[in-house]
Amino acid sequence: MAEPGLLIVTGMSGAGKTQAVQSLEDLGYFCVDNLPPALIPKFAELVSQSGGKIDKVALVVDIRGGAFFSQATEVLHDLSRQGYRYEILFLEASDETLVRRYKESRRRHPLDTQGQVLEVIREERKLLREIRGRANKIIDTSNLSNNQLKEQIISQYGGEKETGRLLITVMSFGYKYGLPLDADLVIDVRFLPNPHYIPELRCLTGNDVPVQRHVLDQDVTKEFMEKLIDFVTFLIPHYQNEGKATLMIAIGCTGGRHRSVTLANKLGDVLTEKGCRVNVRHRDIMRV
């Protein structure tokens, strides 16, 4: 991926912008936090006039700017018209995750004046809807550790030297809890026989051998996995040729505990054996 002249970092308060900026600083980005949008064109001008000395700038623009933030969309339109090159990174997280993070940190949400965290989170989400729609990259941090977020930032913005091979994340999830926002490919495996209806398997997960055997020994599963592996291995080199740094493959079943977990583990193992750089995550495995 070609490095952008300007990287605009924005998103939900509490979604991990601080950790993202720290990772960008480690990559050599000149970072400015809580910049009023009206000043973005000045930084764009400085970057363009630096003769390549300033080639990586990350500007954090978010709701903390108050009344100034309303100018963000207009300013970005102006930048595009003037021919400046920029990308937008939007950090996202679920309402539930953001509420939990604010309770754990005991920090006040920038919009909160009456202790109604969930209400102001929903209000912020509405205010950010337009800039989110313009984002080049959206990262959902709901189920990411700080290290996992850092790895995604490095893979996306670290350049060829830091990135190396394409980083593939294979994630299991449950459709009853919603689609993953940042998935590139979504694979629905609800057509496979469901271990949930077998009493001795119901309380287990796809990490347990009895469930794995039940799912993987089905003829339909064997045929499906052959086709899925062929499909994914066909796509990977083409994604790499286009400069894609990360690929998220989300595999979903009803509850995200049995079928999707089993197949995500299996696909992760196969891709690892083929020399790919793979993370396997199970978003909903602990949900009841």
TrEMBL record:
Q: Quick one: which residues bind GTP?
A: D62, I63, R64, G65
Stored Pfam families: PapZ_C, RapZ-like_N
Provide the binding site for ATP. G11, M12, S13, G14, A15, G16, K17, T18
Which keywords fit this entry according to its UniProt record?
ATP-binding, GTP-binding, Nucleotide-binding
Q: Which residues form the RapZ C-terminal domain?
A: 167-285
Q: Name one GO molecular function term.
A: GTP binding
Which InterPro entries does its entry note?
P-loop_NTPase, RapZ-like, RapZ-like_N, RapZ_C
Q: Which domain of life is it from?
A: Bacteria
Residues forming the RapZ-like N-terminal domain are: 6-160
Task: Name the SUPFAM superfamilies for this protein.
Answer: P-loop containing nucleoside triphosphate hydrolases (SSF52540)
What is the protein name stated in its UniProt record?
Uncharacterized protein
